[in-house]
Amino acid sequence: MRLPYPLLLLAALGCLFGCSESESSAGSKKVIGISIMTSENPFFMQLANAAKEEANKHGFQVKIVSGDKKAETQAQQVQDFIADKVSAILLTPCDAKLVGAPIKEANRADIPVFTADTGCLDKDAKVVSHVATDNYAGGKQAGAAMIEALDGKGGKILILSFDVAQSCLARVKGFREVIAAHNEANANAKIEIVAELPGKAEREKSSRATADQIEKNGDLVGVFAINDPSALGAVAAIEAAGKAVQIKVIGFDGQMIGKQAIKDGKIYADPIQFPKRMGRMIVQQMVKYFAGEAPQAHIPIPTSLYRKADAEKDPELK
């Protein structure tokens, strides 16, 4: 029997939201709205796609959008999720402070909010569960790697930061503490942090910041960058200045581009993250929540220091 046009239209709209053949409507599934910081960084896409795969295993529908590093864009996306009456919201915040307002809007709408990677710094905003890399410990690993790369010698180094992300603040904190401890124990080989500049977690901006600092400090010996795009931006500036042998770079993340650069000798080491594991784990906390169980409020995931020797054995690299 041919359906009337309005019913055909409703059925088509339902399928746009991922309705399977065995389901009569989109409303039969829980829907998770995911807003990531940016789609330009493979890390966030891996996290979101892993979350989607895990969600699909449990019969959930997923809608993924990108905030494009703009807090106002992400806030609008949360409002859209609320209007759509999603079952839960997963955020990797564009701004750890400003994300508090849209989270509180979701709280008022009784929609549970979960976060991954970067958290929320607004104490009045309620987040059910947060899964993230142990960024503070990872920052300490990065500090140890810098000391190792400099082979016990001191010198001037640069930090390329991204202070709107809680995760990156923790990385820098851990890094600075290890360098400070080294300096206390090695008065004759102190490592001087000459600047902490905003690389914006981007290659181009990090390259310009590094180039400016090389002009001011021609004897720079190291750069710690809070992610792989920033590290590769630093590498570009260092190579353009002809200082690839002099300046050692420590990155963070363990993206394929970073791992390949480590194998090629452009980056010394990375504390690597596991975004796919994070995506799966945060959805598993949602499953607990929907089942009436108590999710873990915070799940830290350790990093692993990845050097050239690891890259040489990595089957995924060319």
Strand order in space, largest sheet? 2-1-3-4-5-11
Q: What's the overall geometry?
A: elongated
Instruction: Write the CATH homologous superfamily of the largest domain.
Output: Response regulator
State the helical fraction. Answer: 40-55%
Structural class per helix/strand content?
Answer: alpha/beta
Count of individual beta strands: 12
If you had to describe this structure to a student in words, what would you say it looks like?
The protein is an alpha/beta fold. The protein folds into two domains: 29-133 and 275-301, Response regulator (Rossmann fold), CATH 3.40.50.2300; 135-273 and 307-312, Rossmann fold. Helix content is 44%, strand content 19%. The chain has helices at residues 5-16, 42-57, 71-83, 100-108, 135-149, 166-185, 203-216, 228-240, 256-263, 275-290, 308-312, and strands at 31-36, 61-66, 88-91, 113-116, 129-133, 155-161, 191-198, 220-225, 248-250, 269-272, 298-301, 304-307. The protein has a six-stranded parallel sheet with strand order 2-1-3-4-5-11, sandwiched between helices. It has a four-stranded parallel sheet with strand order 7-6-8-9, with helices on both faces. Helix 4 (100-108) links the parallel strand 3 and strand 4 (113-116). Helix 2 (42-57) packs parallel to helix 10.
